[in-house]
Design goal:
alpha+beta, Creatine Amidinohydrolase, Chain A, domain 1, Creatine Amidinohydrolase, 22% strand, elongated
Length: 362
């Protein structure tokens, strides 16, 4: 159990006016208890009261070894798990519920306590998870170091005649060679027109001379995700593709420069977006600039033009501007992860962002 993290949750509950909260998200439970429990369709709840009481309500099908750090409340398949939970809840007008609790459990609790108020309390834990401690930062550095190594080894394979699906498989193979067997997301390994379509699904296409190749990869190391993108070219690069590449690279650098305490998340997005618009490609930058990352590849707190949240030290997020010219088959995205420091940010990815043309004879 991470006692200090639960204490931070309790402090946030008091500040927000919640007397008790129900946490069901397995990722949040792992963050607080250091236990992975995947309950499937069965109810799993970490119940926390503002007085510091914490109980894990769990089905008997999921025995736990050793001290979990909180009281365990067991139920079985012939019992009403929500009723069991209700017996351990204390008085309080407002019950906070996280965003992932299935509706049928919530509706049952509302039947038991019809006069109480129910509110979405997800942000209490999400905002705490947003600020990484030193142990988390170090794991994420190592996770990104592995991702860097895989990217360096993957780039030469873009000229080996592999299909996109085969290049995807090669990505997973290289991660496994570095001890990472679970991907943060399905790799994006897209040639030419595929890379110019942000909604493209990896297929059996092969790359050809002059193609841009978008490589967006990441994996889980000690439960923490990596995520990075590099775009390279096969054999040669056209003047138009080179222009687009250099614009995206500069936008990435400007976004990173804006990633510092006191700025807003939207300032990072706009640092990238305004430059791309200035260069005449604004309508071809079709997604937000980034996302927070940690135990999940996409966590609370996006890097978008509408997120005015103030950036704080300890946040980790991506900076990934892109330009996608579908009709011309040119797609370029460059992505790095950053850890926000006291006076700026630390970039976690170190694979060069200089334009790379991969020799077809490599």
């Amino acid at each position: 159990m991470h006692k200090e993290r639960i204490e931070r949750v309790v402090a946030s509950m008091k500040e927000a006016g919640y007397s008790q909260i129900i946490i069901s998200d397995p990722v949040a439970i792992f963050y607080l208890l250091d236990r992975w429990i995947h309950p499937g369709e069965r109810m799993l709840v970490l119940y926390i009261h503002e007085d510091g009481t914490a109980k894990l309500v769990i089905n008997e099908l999921f025995p736990q070894d050793g001290d979990v750090g909180v009281e365990l409340v067991w139920y079985n398949d012939i019992e009403d798990g929500v009723a069991v939970l209700s017996e351990h809840m204390k008085d309080g007008e407002v019950i906070g519920v996280d965003k992932n609790w299935p509706a049928h459990f919530l509706l049952r609790l509302q039947e038991i306590f019809p006069d109480r108020k129910y509110k979405n309390a997800s942000l209490l834990v999400d905002k705490i998870r947003q600020i990484k401690d030193e142990e988390e930062k170090e794991i994420m550095r190592e996770s990104s170091r592995i991702c860097d190594a895989v990217m360096e080894e993957l780039i030469p394979w873009v000229v080996k005649g592999l299909t996109e699906k085969e290049l995807d498989a090669k990505t997973r193979e290289l991660f496994a060679e570095h001890g990472v067997t679970e991907m943060s997301f399905d790799p994006i390994t897209a040639y030419g027109r595929g890379g110019a379509d942000p909604h493209h699904v990896t297929d059996d296409s092969k790359g050809k001379r002059g193609d841009s190749v978008v490589l967006d990869i990441g994996g889980f190391y000690k439960n923490y995700a990596s995520d990075m993108t590099r775009t390279v070219f096969i054999g040669e690069v056209s003047d138009k593709a080179r222009e687009v590449y250099e614009i995206v690279k500069e936008a990435n650098l400007r976004g990173i420069a804006a990633a510092k305490p006191g700025n807003r998340m939207c300032d990072v997005d706009l640092a990238c977006r305004n430059y791309i618009e200035e260069k005449g490609y604004g309508k071809y930058f079709t997604h937000r600039t980034g996302h927070s990352i940690g135990l999940e590849d996409h966590e609370y707190g996006d890097v978008s033009s509408v997120n005015e949240e103030i950036i704080r030290p300890g946040q980790v997020f991506s900076v990934e501007p892109g330009i996608y010219l579908l009709d011309e088959g040119i797609g370029v995205r460059i992505e790095d992860l950053v850890i926000v420091t006291e006076d700026g940010c630390e970039v976690l990815n170190h694979v060069t962002k200089d334009l790379i043309v991969v020799d077809e004879e490599a």
